[in-house]
Here is the input.
Amino acid sequence: MIPGTSKQQQPVLDDENSHFRTDHLQDDLGGRSARGGAVTLSAQVFKFVFSTVATIVLARLLTPEDYGLIGMVAILINFVGMFQYLGLSTATVKWSELNHQQVSTLFWVNMALSVAIMLVTIGSGPLLAWFYKEPRLIGITTGYGITILFAGLAIQHEAILTRQMRFAAIVIVEVVALLIGFISAVVAAWQGAGYWALVLNQMVMTLITAIGVWVACRWRPGLPARGIGMRSMLSYGGNLTGFNVMTFFSRNLDNALIGKFWGPAQLGVYSRAYQMLLMPMQQINAPLAAVAVPTLSRLADSPERYRVAYLKILEKIVMITMPLAALMIATSDWMVLLLLGPQWRETGRIFMLLGIAAMIQPVTKTAWWLFSTQGRTRELFHWGLLGGAIAIVSIVAGLPWGATGVAASYAVTDLCVATPLLFWYVGRRGPVRTIDFYRTIAPVSAASMCSLATLLLCRSWLNAVPSLFARLSIAFGITVAVSLLIMSALPAGRLAMRSLKDTLLLLLKRNPSVAEPAK
Here is the structure.
């Protein structure tokens, strides 16, 4: 019996705490992870395609000025949004033992932060209007402030669904919210609402998401309490937020400095190349992170199973992203011409240089999974300071040569300096050691380098193909063929391909389960 409760109270508390138990997940953790990854990745593809279509439709109903007004507010919203979560949703997913009082307190902490950030956002409206000399920003910041409050209602409920590995429920809520938000925006834009259609889109999506997760997750918060072991959770979340803040500044400094010293034209070329490169990588990393964090959290007490699970996920990431990055480096100019047009030709060179960093960044992005699921967020914060400082130095060093210099300096430094340091730093402790990173990515790295070399040798022949789409299609086929050939020739590569095959078979099984040892 829980101390301080009667026999009549005990069943109620057990029912409340049932939302946080995870012991039932252990019986089919491998199957749940594989199915969750497939569902989440499929939903991400759908959301990417749908969002692209929605952007095209709204772009024909709205003006560049409408989008520009939202852009003036976006940096503020993205920055203050980091403090709304304070890493507490990740704490809910990661913590091995949780109870109703603890999560209720986390809920009210998130709500208090949401209210405070909403008021700061709304209060910043007049300041932004004065800075940009644009009075319409007052109304926009008010709308986004209300959206922040709606988002606060969903934080802990969505974290509980993730903790329980109920990925299908999360996907359904997100897709429904996306559809309703888009319909609302199109109707508003059709009726001449202008930039308010974009504000309404965010408000409706966030409100529907909050309603959806409250329906899917039947847990309801109680009153906050003290003396229930919250200090470690708040410290965990604070370190995670500190890392995010440092990352935010280091990731946005390049845009600020290029815009300041080289003007909007260079910034436009650089930012467009960065967005083109980042978009496909985000579609892969984001859904995998949503599945990997709860999976690794459930395995934190089993070091060898934890290590094997992480390295299998990492192996699948590099099998997709490294050959893709090699393809983008070799065909950067063709991709830019096809997607953006000849006026963006200069973007191709920057896109190619940033592709060097793109080959390894999907791997380094997974390091925060290890820090967060092992409870090492203080080390994560320290790495944020060190990694951010390295990024800032590289950006400043390349600035005299414009956007191209920044891209080259950042990419080379990230690959040759920051990545080896990160592998060493995260591998000092915990089940995953530094050597594990190199062993896992080695066969795919070799295959990707051979693919890149083959593509570069074939460029003169491919240039004779008149259609850009045909060139890229042939280049894609070459990348796949060479990568599979080299992987098949290496013993570690064959093991990786066999592991991928086993994962696909697990997805196809009617009732997948974790394999049992042979008797």
